[in-house]
Amino acid sequence: MPIVISKNKREAGLLNAVREISGVDVARCLQCKKCTNGCPVATLVKVPPSEIIRRLLLNEDDSTVNSDLVWMCASCETCFSRCPMQIDMAAIMDALRIISIKRNTAKQKGNVPLFNKWFLKTVKVFGRTYDLGMIAAYKVGTSNYFQDADKFPMMLRKRKIALFPSFKADKKYVTRIFKKKN
Amino acid sequence: MKYAYYPGCSAESTARDQYMSIREVSKILDIELIEPKGWTCCGSTPAHQTDKILSLALPAANLLMAKKMELDMVVFCAACYNRMKVANYEIQKYPDIRKEVADSLGEEYDGSVNVHHFVEVLIKNVGVKKLQEAFTHSLDGLKVANYYGCLLVRPKEATNFDDPENPTIMDSLITIMGGESIDWPHKVECCGGGFALTRTDVVIELSNSILGMAKAAGAECMAVACPMCQVNLDLRQSDINKVKHSSHNIPIVYITQLVGLCLGIAPEKLGMDKCVVSPRSIIEAIKSNY
Ligand code: SF4
Ligand code: SF4
Q1: Pocket around ligand 2: residues whose beta carbon is below 6 Å from it?
Q2: Of B65, B88, B117, which residue sits at a domain end?
Q3: What confidence category does residue A140 fall into, taking pLDDT thresholds of 50, 70 and 90?
Q4: What ipTM was assigned to the predicted interfaces of this complex?
Q5: Residue B183's domain spans which residues?
Q6: A31 CB near ligand 1 (under 6 Å)
Q7: B50 with A116: Cβ contact below 8 A
Q8: What is the pTM of this model?
Q9: How far A147 CA sits from the closest chain B CA (Å)?
Q10: Nearest chain A residue (CA) to B42
Q11: By CB neighbour count within 10 A (0-12 exposed, 13-18 middle, 19+ buried), where does B177 fall?
């Protein structure tokens, strides 16, 4: 399918921002599509990895940041591993996610940013992840109380999920790392 | 043999069985595993999706602890393994990143601590001969699909684990135990583990194709080396069956649990009662060597 981008939807800033955050030179892409052919979610998304690169090079605006792949990419690194030009597509996806958060773009299905936020919050507070706390906060945030509700009693019985957070972490480094990040 | 051992957060919740089996196996094989006191989370996928320095400093903090212990680091979780290897790689390769990580940690770390996966320790450091001598039981021809997933093998530049398209290290371990490692094409496909809670629909698609391929290739069980893959492929089988009208019922076990069984360790001590799909068929297939 041809990629059509109208003039008023162009913005060079995005390509530069991606380049700055990821350190990847997208201009070397040959459009060979090996990345797309190996991408596990390519058949589930509207815009596959090779097309993301093409759209970036054509200076497409916000809609590239809003592409469904941005939050459906599983960070599996198959694209990077197979690219004949060693283009680190996975790093480009990380950059697009960071830009998407910064620009506060529309939330996609599953709200991965909210999950990531609570995951990192438990790490900041306890030094280690606390599954149950993180899941609870994520569920409240997405009002999705019933998904997997049937699994928790079994997982608790099998001790496959911890009821309480761990208090054994030494937070010396973690506290400083998170402080420096802000 | 003495190592710093990083269990990873999942060892305290979803992957307690993995932790138990590693501890039991190490006891018998004289591998001394010392946890860095107060180890902290590696940041996993949420960290690298959020901020690069955060994603490198979190694993580096633990590597710094291992450095102070003057020991190599042993990891089992593929995600933790990957993040530590990437941190070492980036810190060694880029001086400005090394500086930024040092600033974040408040201490200098040079990326020099060797990181090994527990399976690598078994094959390369314990060695085939000692393993063969230690095994009191055999898998007796059990057909095993070895599933490596994404994070051990990719990116090759950083992890340097095995061939990124057709790794064989787990296969060789299964063969030593008398099992049959089946040849199948989905060894390094992604199961969508990172989306366990957020995009179950994606997990169902990806895991369904992996389970289906294992079945088509004649596998009687799947051996994994990552807690996220284990939970995903095991716990989600019933959901997949519902959505896809399939009939998956294949046990998903840690390769260390199989090692434990062949060392004569009781299944409960290896946490095998925690599997959702019953591993009974595997336990029954184990034969004594005597
Ligand atoms: S594999 Fe590399 S060169 Fe080929 S289309 Fe993808 S990014 Fe471009
Ligand atoms: S890292 Fe993302 S874009 Fe690349 S192959 Fe995996 S899912 Fe697709």
Answers
A1: A 38-41, 49, 73-79, 89-90, 93
A2: B117
A3: confident
A4: 0.91
A5: 135-288
A6: yes
A7: yes
A8: 0.94
A9: 9
A10: A128
A11: buried
